[in-house]
Specification:
Layout lengths: L2 H17 L11 H16 L51 E7 L5 H17 L2 E5 L6 E5 L4 E3 L7 E6 L7 H12 L14 E3 L46 E3 L15 H10 L5 E5 L4 E4 L13 E6 L5 E9 L10 E5 L8 E6 L7 E3 L4 E7 L7 E8 L10
Parallel strand pairs: 1-2, 1-3, 3-5, 8-10
Antiparallel strand pairs: 4-5, 6-7, 9-16, 10-15, 11-14, 11-16, 12-13, 12-15
Helix pairs in contact: 1-2, 3-4
């Protein structure tokens, strides 16, 4: 019998034996042993052959790493969303947070480290994923300038490398793309329903690269297809003919794909659903827009904060509160609004504990991000409406 068939049969029997064990006390297989056999099973079904690169700079140096879908190292390749043991996910703490220790290589400059930290902090703002500085933890993410932009898939244990090369990977969206793989996220255009949303031009893809475009068996978590996902390939990915697209959105071929500015709203929603995060967060990325507290009216639990992150490509942000009704309390302690000059709670607070209706300030950010946080004890539903735009404001900034 062919060796691959034998291995597949053995791995499948083992898979079902550990999924539905008989009721006897036996010595449990180690995490790494089970993962190894599951890797064999999945990789034989998927048909691993060779692993070309997604980004041209993944060929820099002497990169001999075989990469699945261009930037996922196959050492522990699994489909995290259907992982039968949940070992593909990082564990959740009793406080509802997913704590992931991380370490940044000392090879990066101060500016490069700041960019990486900024990309990481966006998870803390919008999801229950919290990256914390590693101390003595055994399992952690190690961000290092290896030979390209790539990541392991899901949690693999030990010092888990996320490669962010200095030559072409130093963009927030690329960093978050690779971190998403480490969280257990796949590429958007490999969804099992992708043929309803994009057209793959196989004639412009070399046969050796076909498997990069093979749909996966992953659960889409009930979320719609996201052209704006940071996990989506650009339209010329793996093209063997200059100027010829391999991926075209359908039915509107003009829809942009392949952005690397940062996480999209649906990227955030997918992470929060995958890790069952109890968090209310909204990402606002249009140059102008409005938002209000009423979007959480039906699901606002006690002692739960809501955040709105305004992140535009460039320029400053002008924010104006149009209406405000918040239950009055001593020193605005129970219910109030905070506005941060940046995308993180660690940034400067330039509106602190706004709660009284007569206070309707206009504020202007110093950069291209602003964070609005609504704090409530849940006894009453705070109400507000706000609008924002990009560029200079017609009023004096940051004065109440």
């Amino acid at each position: 019998m062919d060796l691959k068939i034998q291995l597949a049969l053995f791995a499948s029997h083992f898979y079902f034996s550990v999924s539905f064990p008989i009721q006897v006390r036996v010595k449990q297989k180690s995490h790494s042993q089970i993962c190894f056999l599951y890797v064999i099973f999945i990789s034989l079904l998927d048909g691993w052959d060779t692993f070309p690169t997604l980004y041209p700079f993944n060929m820099l140096g002497n990169n001999k790493t075989r990469l699945y879908e261009g930037d996922i190292t196959p050492k522990r390749h699994r489909n995290a969303i259907v992982c039968p043991f949940n070992w593909c996910f990082w564990p959740k703490s009793s406080n509802g947070l997913v704590i992931i220790p991380y370490l940044i290589s000392s090879s990066y400059t101060r500016e490069e480290k700041a960019l990486i930290v900024g990309a990481i902090q966006e998870y803390e703002t919008l999801t229950c994923i919290h990256f914390v500085d590693r101390t003595t933890e055994t399992d952690y993410i190690y961000i290092s300038p290896k030979d390209g932009c790539w990541s392991y898939f899901g949690k693999v244990g030990g010092s888990q490398v996320v490669s962010v090369h200095k030559g072409g990977c130093m963009r927030k969206g690329i960093i978050q793309h690779e971190l998403n793989h480490a969280l257990g996220m796949l590429h958007e255009q490999n969804r099992n329903d992708r043929d309803k949303y994009v057209v793959i031009a196989w004639q412009y893809i070399s046969p050796g690269d076909f498997y990069h475009f093979k749909p996966t068996r992953a659960n889409n978590l009930g979320l719609k297809y996201d052209y704006s996902s940071v996990m989506h390939y650009h339209r010329f990915a793996f093209s063997n003919t200059s100027g010829k697209a391999t991926i075209t959105p359908f039915p509107d071929s003009t829809v942009p794909i392949g952005q690397r500015v940062g996480l999209s709203n649906l990227d955030v929603a997918k992470i929060n659903k995958l890790y069952e995060c109890e968090i209310h967060s909204t990402l606002l990325s249009n140059l102008t827009g409005s938002f209000s507290s009423t979007i959480y009216r039906s699901s606002y639990p006690k002692n739960t904060n809501s955040v709105w992150l305004i992140r535009i490509p460039a320029n400053k942000i002008f924010l104006q509160f149009n209406s405000l009704y918040i239950q009055s309390s001593s020193d605005c302690a129970s219910n109030h609004i905070l506005v941060y000059d940046g995308g993180s709670r660690r940034d400067t607070v330039f509106l602190n504990k706004l709660c009284r209706p007569k206070q309707l300030p206009a504020v202007v950010s110093s950069g291209n991000m602003m964070l609005v946080e609504l704090v409530s004890d849940g006894t009453t539903l705070p109400k507000f409406k706000a609008s924002y735009n990009s560029g200079k404001s017609p009023v004096s900034p940051n004065k109440i």
